[in-house]
Amino acid sequence: MIESLLLNLGSRDVLSAEEESHLRAIIVKDRHFVAGEDLVSEGSRPAYSTLLLDGFAARYRVMADGSRQITALHVAGDFVDLHAFPIKKMDHGIVAMSSCHVAFADHADLKAITEGMPHLTRMLWLDTLVDGAIHREWIVAMGRRSKRAHIAHLVCELFVRLQVVKRTRGASFHFPLTQIEMADVLGLSVVHLNKTLQALKREGVFTWENRTITIVDWERLQEIAEFDPSYLSISREPR
Fold first, then answer.
1. What pLDDT, on the 0 to 100 scale, is given for residue 56?
2. Do the beta carbons of residue 160 and residue 218 sit within 8 Å?
3. CA–CA dist 225, 153 (Å, integer)
4. How confident is the model at residue 65, as a pLDDT?
5. What is the rounded CA–CA span in Å between residue 165 and residue 131?
């Protein structure tokens, strides 16, 4: 059930048979969510952390005027709220952007890992550090990249992350968000988003049709985005 997590962690270091077996033993409860349903609610104090097995989910905040800002996208293999273990109270919500299949790791079991399995602890810690690195890239994109480069960067990032967990098909991947939801990710109006997407389409770097993104010119897309995947720490080395 947790193959996507094992692929995710295994892209950064080798998990021992004992570590893999232990993760399989503690992550056994699962549940399905429909699009639009909160996986984790803002203000809640979960006693478990949620692993996304399949689907897309998003961290978000709702402003006083009802507008929403999406602050992260999660794909299969991501713990969407591993940080909830030490933080305790959630200061944001996590919503299903598509049908989602999730599993849960009790915080008591995570605490036991920190007390008895130092290497696995470091691997899970790294998972939260990569989350932080992605947040930094998103902040840079919001503040300093052109909207054209911002969209291109997001497509590059998602493609690489989905490749790791075997959720791509050639140069394509399933992308269930609507343009309204994509605008919430990018902090744009739908009109501005549509104009920018049309410009990128004319450049022939990727297409987005029928909930599928297909990369047509990977080299050019990376060039537009100034994409350097090193912040994702996808390299197997001792941790």
1. 97
2. no
3. 5
4. 87
5. 16
Q: When comparing pLDDT for 238 and 67, which is higher?
A: 238
Distance, in Å, from the CA atom of 75 to the CA atom of 204, rounded to the nearest integer, reads 26
Contacts of 118 (CB under 8 A, 6+ apart): none
Structural tokens at position 194: 């549509």
The maximal CA–CA distance of the chain, rounded, in angstroms, is 55
DSSP string, 104-131: EEEHHHHHHHHHH-HHHHHHHHHHHHHH
DSSP 8-state secondary structure symbol assigned to residue 19: H
Residue 87's pLDDT is what?
87
Q: Return d(Cα 175, Cα 139) in angstroms, integer.
A: 22
Q: How confident is the model at residue 63 (pLDDT cuts 50, 70, 90)?
A: confident
* 4 contact partners, CB below 8 Å, separation of at least 6: 52, 53, 54, 76, 77, 165, 166, 167
